[in-house]
């Protein structure tokens, strides 16, 4: 394998990993991701004083 193809392959791998990291971050910061594992009181959340606040706003500080 020539040096060009090795460098190209490495750049492709880095680009795919970076894209997966960004995509994973976007998915994991959504409320639907959080409630997939963590139970929440829908009525309390939807009608409480913090209905406009996302999970990530409180639980990552």
Automatic annotation (TrEMBL):
It comes from the Bacteria. Keywords: Electron transport, Heme, Iron, Metal-binding, Transport. InterPro entries: Multihaem_cyt_sf, NapC/NirT_cytc_sf. The keyword Electron transport applies. GO terms for molecular function: metal ion binding. This is Cytochrome c nitrite reductase small subunit.
């Amino acid at each position: 394998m020539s040096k060009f193809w090795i460098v190209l392959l490495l750049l492709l791998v880095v680009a795919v990993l970076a894209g997966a990291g960004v995509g994973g971050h976007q998915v994991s910061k959504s409320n639907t991701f959080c409630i997939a594992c963590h139970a929440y009181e829908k009525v309390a959340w939807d009608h409480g004083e913090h209905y406009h606040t996302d999970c990530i706003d409180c639980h990552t500080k």
